[in-house]
Amino acid sequence: MKKLSKYFKVLTDIPKELQYYHLPSGYYVVINRNYTATVRSVYDLKDYINNNVEQIDLDVFGQIKNEDSEASEAFIGVFNRILAEVMGYKTFNCEFKHQFIECTSDLETISVRTKGGKYITLSVMERYAQCVDIKLHDKDKFKIIGFDGGQTPVPHTDVTLTTILLNK
Questions:
Q1: Separation in Å, CA 165 to CA 91, 116, 132, 136
Q2: Of 32, 35, 84, 159, which sits 20 to 30 A from 146 (CA to CA)?
Q3: Is the pLDDT of residue 59 over 90?
Q4: Which residues contact 143 (CB under 8 A, 6 or more apart)?
């Protein structure tokens, strides 16, 4: 069982509008192999984790068994940031449903099929190339856009594959 440090504390800020916000049904979140919590409040989730660090089993923590369709985007965003913080991940577009994937090898490929039926492959190559290749399948070429703090230095470029350099 992988545990958190006994000194761990969730630092994610809870916005004022969510401090008293409670979902009717809640999210069911696995805490450890014997306990799945019903999370109706992000404030209560943060408080529970901070006061029960020894209960967290990082091998299973954060699995979502039920979602509440009435959750606001703000709730989902803070909820995902708390889960990510506990598990040691970063978030982006955190108000969307998240899948947290930990590579177990320094050469690993992750295949994604979108809800719309598109196929994307991420090939993580830390050992040799220190990069991640990203391929959109079923198209000879696709467009990428580069961003830099809101700027678009590469507005649209047709490519067959794109690479993110990890050591630059």
A1: 19, 28, 7, 18
A2: 84
A3: yes
A4: 156, 157, 158, 159
